[in-house]
Amino acid sequence: MRRIVPVSGRTVETPTTVTLRFEDARPAAPGQFVMLWIPGDDEIPMSLSYVGSSKGVTVKVMGPTSRHIQEIAPGTLLGVRGPYGNAFELTPHRVLVVAGGSGAAVLAPAAEALRARGGEVEVALGATRASELLFEGRFAAMGATVHPATDDGSRGARGFVTELVGPLLARGRFDAIWTCGPEVMMQKVIAAAQGTGVPVVCSVERWMKCGLGLCDACALGPYHVCVDGPVFPAERLGAVPEFGRTKHDAAGRRVPG
Length: 257
Ligand SMILES: Cc1cc2nc3c(=O)[nH]c(=O)nc-3n(C[C@H](O)[C@H](O)[C@H](O)COP(=O)(O)OP(=O)(O)OC[C@H]3O[C@@H](n4cnc5c(N)ncnc54)[C@H](O)[C@@H]3O)c2cc1C
Ligand code: FES
Known about the structure:
Bound molecules: flavin-adenine dinucleotide, FE2/S2 (inorganic) cluster
Strand order of the largest sheet: 10-9-8-7-11-12-15
Number of helices: 7
CATH class of the largest domain: Alpha Beta
Largest sheet: 7 strands, mixed
Structural class: alpha/beta
């Protein structure tokens, strides 16, 4: 059932990323997403970057709808369905978070929930450049150790965030890795963890329409990402040939992932 909620706050996080807050008492867990409808425009899936009664979505410009969402002012009415999908299990004690770009939007509330339970969090936080590092201050404020990496070297290590994973695993003891970002990035995280015994959990994005497991838009091998995910243990993704290679577009055609 879609609810209509007014936007209660708007924060510019990076030059391309904005957080919109709205009040919604429906319970939600870190990892879940909502279908967000902008009256007069499209409905798109967005992870919840804040999961309390004051919820939030953190939106990066990808195309017309996300650009429209970014321009929305407080007081504007949005349609919200959900929350849908599964959530991160908060059972590990010490987690390495590996976030690429807007992937930090779904990982920050999960890390916050783990910290609230007494868990420990280290974050490898990647972006193209320093100004695009998302939620660096939020991770630091929750008491996580943050290791930034930027493609151009403008902050932290120069290069891909995945290059931090091997050295961090070699010098720290982790019960799990949580990762979200481009699939090629998550594949590199899985490869870096191979043989270490540290399980990897990925948050996956696929084209979505219904969010309810009915339309097949989000098919990924034998799974519907909207109901079987979006949070998947890496060993389930290992058996899915299209992970990191292809995905379906709006028309259901298979395109490079
Ligand atoms: C479970 C889930 C959680 C997501 N969480 C976030 C988030 O927290 N922050 C964020 O910035 N983005 C998130 N996305 C991606 C976001 O939904 C797309 O970037 C957005 O739909 C782009 O729409 P557009 O019209 O602006 O761009 P378009 O130009 O229409 O599309 C640009 C790209 O966005 C993707 N996309 C477009 N429509 C959809 C759709 N209905 N379903 C899935 N992907 C689509 C496609 O890869 C497409 O190539 C999430 C996607 C999923 C599936
Ligand atoms: S979005 Fe329709 S089945 Fe997943």
